[in-house]
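Troubleshooting: if your tokenizer reports a length mismatch, compare your output against this known-good record of 635 residues.
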Amino acid sequence: MQSPLETLKKYWNYPAFRPGQEEIIQSVLAGRDTLALLPTGGGKSICYQVPGLMSGGLTLVISPLIALMRDQVENLNKRGIPATFINSTLSFAQIDRKLSLAMEGSYRFLYIAPERVKTEMFQARVQQMNVKLIAVDEAHCISQWGYDFRPAYQNLPVLREWLPRIPVLAVTATATPEVKTDILEKLEMKDPRVFAQSFRRDNLSFRVYQTDNAAGKILELVRKFAGSGIIYCRTRRRTAYLAKILSENGIPSQAYHGGMDNKDRTEVQARWISNEIRVIAATNAFGMGIDKPDVRFVLHYNLPSELESYYQEAGRAGRDGKPGVAAVISNPSDQAELSDWALEKYPPFETVADSYDRLCDIFRIPNVGAVEAIHGFDVGQAATKAGIPARTFYHALRILDNEGVLNFEENPDNFALIRFRIGPRAVLEFKERHPAYAKLVDFILRNSGGEVYIQEISFLPASWAGRLKIRQEELEEQLRFMGERGWIDYQPARALPQIRFFQPRHRLTRNELNWHKYNFLQDLGKTRLEKMLEYVGPAGGCRSRFIQQYFGEKTTENCGKCDLCQAVGRPALTRDAIHARILVELEQGPVTYREMLKRIEGEAGDALEACLRELIDRRVIRVDAQTFLFPGENI
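Known-good structure output:
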């Protein structure tokens, strides 16, 4: 039997494990229930994929996000490891076929959404599968104390009844002490081993900038910091606004948000990963599952509502272990807006019930009979048609989704699905009769390694079209033609958010929605918001230590890198002294804006950039198109 390291090298070609991974894997291989808290970029998936491969059976992975499932399955299949997923985007027939193949031992990994665990179809099959490990990804979702609570996760203990002797590995990047305790209890872990890495990131400098000119500050910081970066915004409109400002100032940038169609999102993401564009301005729809290790800075144009999501997003900087910056822009108006958004997250019961009724009207959901059709829809347009404010309507949808009244998939992924319905001999005959399709068929077989005969494979239509050197519309037309004639199963990529009703239309009740729970979550959200606002204030002493203590680490050690640590003992230069220091540097010759900041920020602090702007406005210094600074006409 191969060792864990040999397995890692064989399938991933990595020379060694990251810190903490091997100990977690050994615990799982020993049959122990295990909880692993690893920071963003810590390699959580390896902790169940390596022992899953070594087990000789099937690993059942509970995962909450469709895009993450798709990404994980595609990466495993590329490595020659048979894997598939089951979630709400699939038809009844597709799910049935995948479960049958799992029973036959065709897969090593089966990813499943938590909502599907209690379906009759899954219950009837799971005990007949050769399950050797249960992995619960994003395990904090099981806890009401968690920032991203998913009620469907609380169905997972039934797996312990159906598979009583199978070890469970729960992994997450963010868990407070209350959440950690809740995970262990809710998953009924027996004599568990708990592995928790420190939440300290020695290579990251956490900073907060207090300013009313948030866009101007973002521009200054992007000019100052080298390398690739992400800027997080609260709204889609702001992502476009910031990308425009940066681009107009010579910084290759693009926006990314859930309102863009699949093709555009895919192209933007690919251009950023390949460093064709330097900065991506995004809503929090961006980032999960994106493996780009060389991100040098993550900036928050708007505050998140809790430290858990902030830490996870900020942790996308410096995943390669090299220095990175995680900075927040803070001001009173943004804090007031954030407070309003936090209140809107849990609308009154009457509003949720009204939103449900309006949705049923829009999609003509009957009072009786089968209703499991999938509808693509624009949330903003549906809210307008319903006569309900868009953000209120959105949060009502999230609650209805959480409670299983319907399924709302806000960010459909960019992938299409294909499977051959005819065998190899029939495919050869098809190519002879339809030579115009031979190139496409050969391409599909070459890229699937034959898996396309037994299961759906996922693919990016834009990528396939590019490699085939044809228009995407032409590719999709050929696939539709083959699908209509029964030669393939073909599911196009979904461009719009998806909604699926599980039940006939009925009158909602507070009991059905567990409404007392949302009162509790609303109070908890207020507490988290208060901690977020406390973090961006000046009284914490050290940003990194504040985060560590929030997640339950007992530490008094300062990081020495954050803005508060660096402010200790910094000379308090006057404005005139900073002006003089800038001019002294310019006497040595022209210098870029970024280089000037590097040279004297330690002496001048946050006041430096305000002084530079003032000197430029007064024409004491001037700046050219390449951001070089020169003495001005009024020196």
